[in-house]
Amino acid sequence: VTEITAKRLGREFYSRPTETVARELLGCQFVRASPDGEIRGWIVETEAYLPHGDPACHANRGSTPSNRSMFLIPGTCYVYPIHAKYCVNVSTEADGIGAAVLIRGIEVTSGNDLVQRRRGTISQMDWCRGPARLCLALSIDRSLDGEDTIHSERIWIEQSTNQPRLPAFRIGTSPRIGVTSAESLELRFFVDGNRFVSGRRRDHSRRAADSFAESCE
DNA sequence: ACGGGGATCGGCT
DNA sequence: GCCGATCCCCGTA
Asked: Is residue A191 a contact partner of residue A212, using CB atoms and an 8 Å limit?
């Protein structure tokens, strides 16, 4: 049995065009560690918010006290409140630019008991299906806004070093969910057919996959 | 100080 | 599918 090894993503990963980062985050392991325990999961759905020409990007009208994390060094968590809930992003491009990738869904691979406790009667399929649900499951709130995922012991992202990567043809795209401007931009990316992706079934052109691992075959 | 809108969710029909 | 809850944020005055 070959052990699965993974390495934390470094500054250079995030210091690239936002759309590239959003695509390549699919299949990476999102990790959240707290005194309650550690939760891990495959990232199965992301959205890119671009630094230029993107009216839906919170950074579009410049830096404010609440969106400043988007302008911080690439790899910084940007946690923002919406409708009395939270969503988590990671900043991209270059220091000071103002862009990020929204993490919209993960397939939990460890820490299931802890997530179950936090999500109560919600079914496993819906634990992290959508950006605010993901934050509820992983106990992410504004105390993590501004956290640097390159060095944090509370939140970071890893990439496997000896597992097959997600094939490009397994990446589905669509307009971003809930965004009412720039609807022509296809900046949502998801693991095609994965059960833990939000949105409607017509987004999925492939048959349903039982797990992320199956999508790599 | 005020008010409208938002990268949402869950329950109900 | 639709709708209400809920609250933060920022533009305007």
From this structure: yes
Task: Dump pLDDT digits (tens) for A33-92.
Answer: 999 999 999 999 999 999 999 999 999 999 999 999 999 999 999 999 999 999 999 999
Taking C1' of C4 and every protein CA, the nearest residue is A83
| Straight-line distance from the first to the last Cα atom of chain A, in angstroms, rounded to the nearest whole number | 18
Mean pLDDT, chain A, whole residue set: 93
Residue type at position A22: A
Pairwise CA distance, residues A131 & A140, whole Å: 10
Which of A1-5, A59-63, A150-154 is predicted least confidently? Answer: A1-5
The spacing between the Cα labelled CA in A134 and the C1' in B6, in angstroms, equals 18
pLDDT at A167 over 90: no
**DSSP code at position A72:** S
Question: What's at A77, amino acid-wise?
Answer: C
Q: d(Cα A75, Cα A215) in Å, to the nearest integer?
A: 26
Cβ-based neighbour number of residue A121 at 10 Å: 5
Q: Which nucleotides of C are covered by protein (CB under 7 A)?
A: 1, 5-11
* CA→C1' distance for A93 and B10 (Å): 35
Residue A84 DSSP code: T
Report the distance from CA of residue A142 to the C1' of nucleotide C10 in Å, as an integer: 18
**Residue A142 CA to nucleotide C7 C1', Å?**
14
